[in-house]
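Worked problem 6 (solution included).
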Amino acid sequence: MDSVVTHARSETDERFDTARITAAVDALAAEYAGREDVFRAAVAKLLKAELIAARATAQAVLLKDRHGRRCAERLCFVQDEIIRILFAAATRHLYHSPIPSGAERMAVVATGGYGRGLMAPESDIDLLFILPYKQTAWGEQVAEAILYCLWDMGLKVGHATRSVDESIRQARGDMTIRTAILETRFLTGDQPLYNELVARFDKEVVQGTAAEFVTAKLAEREERHRRAGQSRYLVEPNVKDGKGGLRDLHTLFWIAKYVYRVRETDELLERGVFDAQEYRTFRRCADFLWSVRCNIHFFSGRAEERLSFDMQREIAIRLGYTSHPGMQDVERFMKHYFLVAKEVGDLTAILCAKLEDQQAKPAPVLSRMMARLRPSTNRRRVPDSDDFIVDNNRINLATPDIFKHDPVNLIRIFRLAQKNNLAFHPDAMRTVTRSLKLINTQLRDDPEANRLFMEILTSNGAEIVLRRMNEAGVLGHFIRAFGKIVSMMQFNMYHHYTVDEHLLRCVGFLQEIERGGNDEFIVASDLMRKIRPEHRAVIYITTLLHDIAKGRPEDHSIAGAKVARRLCPRLGFNHADTELVAWLIEQHLTMSTVAQSRDLSDSKTIENFAAVVQSVEQMKLLTILTTADIRGVGPGVWNGWKAQLLRTLYYETEPVLTGGFSEVNRAQRIAAAQSEFRAAFTEWPEQQLNAYIARHYPAYWLKVELPRKIRHARFLRASEQAGHKLAINVGFDEARGVTELTILATDHPWLLSIIAGACASAGANIVDAQIYTTTDGRALDTIAITREYDRDEDEGRRATRIGDMIEDVLEGKLRLPEVVARRAAGRGKARPFVVEPEVTVNNQWSDRYTVIEVSGLDRPGLLYELTTAISKLNLNIASAHVATFGERARDVFYVTDLLGAQITAPTRQAAIRSALTHLLANEQAAA
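Solution. The predicted structure is:
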């Protein structure tokens, strides 16, 4: 609570000219005497204009000095002055009481965020009107006069009117009110009344309740993180409520105020909670986060707290970031943001450790891992080491100088914690962070340190321990290439996490693959058991390093292979295994690309892929790496369809690599897939089942996952029994956030284009498509579109509209070009991403078809425009492979000319490239 008395000010303050504005209000009171409503409206109009001008000045100053805290203080000062002017107007001109009674007293107090003395441009204002006793007519009138004027100015105001007694009573029972009163700040009115509240709050509410308050606030913080997304490395972070955001700093200060009874943050230094370096970090983090938040509010014109992609670049420019080779301005800004978020987390751990030492809070709640560990309060030596002790089930230092005495202990502490299932004592982590300068070339080359590191990486719980190593700074110092990608974000919609967080998550998923038992990793888990034992360490180090060279000018796969060649010998790998790691990193995107964007039933695709992977062992390792990599990108990216494509590519390629011998040859695999279907689908008599199975080509049985095959069978039968020429089934994939349309229609050369056009007309963006034809000439296409509505019923109606449109176009009732053109004319705002258009045309990937690969910025209607353009070039589309990676669309078309031949003439290939590049570049320029 800040009992700030209204300080005497100079007559004019450059932030807000209170004297001039007060005089103007007095003049309005004289002009509109006896006409209260007109006076109020005039005052609101005057103050609104002054507030707009003051905010504009604040924004100009912020853009110039980039000092967020100063901006927040300035905006708060302006708001304070406005409220003081309004209180004076209400008590002098509207409800003047020449000789006020004891009940006609009031203190106007700022609470909540506003009470801290810092305000973002679009923040709410929280006010508490304190009265001596119960509400009186005078108190109600004054409070209403102030509130109505603030509302008329367009401000969002939270308010409460309470007596001191009532405030104390409610604070005892409600933690939110208690926190609000903790942060009150006197604005104007009756100072003794406010002082009474402060004194009684300290004595009657705070004393003896510190542990209760701390427990509640930390539980609240956990819940807030859960809602905002647990990782502090989500690439569209919430600056206010996200992990490592402003609210975490506020929570720290609330706890410190409550437990240590401090008024200002610098008192935390005097109380020994933070040392000088940590206090400077506290101030720097707060300043940076306030700069970001104020700029977001000014830029968006609303109380927006999420740093979304469409504003990240603008905020980066406002804060003065510039692009460097390999890293855009926005990526450098976001890396700084995530480093600050990490530091906020470190400060939280430090304060919690301090509180725990003083037993202000029950120990088990402080550490998330504590609950899993056996309860014990004794201190004992850690097995296998005299340098570390177990302190309440957490590893701590036996003496403060153990790292100086033996720097290998900086790695050993993490291995011993992992081996003995111990949490980390915050004091130990604090000492680790202060000892990072001991991690030098000598330690990095130390065989024992490298052996311990590889043990950490390949043992149970590696992800958790590596994350602690990363948070303490050890991982980035020990492997310097890793240090360069710490907190690095990639400015795209595909990756949900920063690069370091993605790599650590991939290691976690690799361990899950190795454990087995999860159906989504069934192929990778099987292969993990079959790789050569000496390659287990190879796949672990590759998974940790596969994106290690992101943010460099050179392609990250090639640069990453170079990093591996330098690093692996140090970690104990021989020359052959080092080269294998480098090869896997260089090729880590190949299998995903081929599986999702090539025709896997085309023998040339398989031969080309076999030439790249060279051996079954290398393909096994690449399959495992690809599975962990896709799963680690973010929720909803890995799915049954992608798993099935990887499985198909693996088993199609295996016989080529084994000289015709396959553990499971193609005919057997088709038969096995059909038998699996028969066993699972028992609703039809055998004769009908045989006829149905014969309707699908072999590729269908290999590439489609079992649950979808069963849905298809039911859908085809129901549609044909109902006599529908065209039928559409709607499904929802919650994990991926898409709506799936399964379409059954008579095959037609323009069918894909018509479906794509109908989706575009409804504003639906196609994110992937699975296209199959039956032996009797029916098309069975599954199109995944991004959701528009939260409720399935609304989304279902939208899907039905798309189906009706497809039917109308096929029957000639509707002309698609006109409908799509109308939709395109009303298209929304440009997207913040730039994707360089790429078009390749070649005959090397297929013996029968020319393959056109198109890559560019995704948008609704893109697939329709591409398929229409390809048809206008007099080409037949034999198959299409549609995929999106965040904002990037990658569509591959297998085509022939109208006579069924490949496109071999260089001039015609150039014309195709030119037309499609022009289509992509035009839209990007328009955006």
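Discussion: The radius of gyration is 33 Å.
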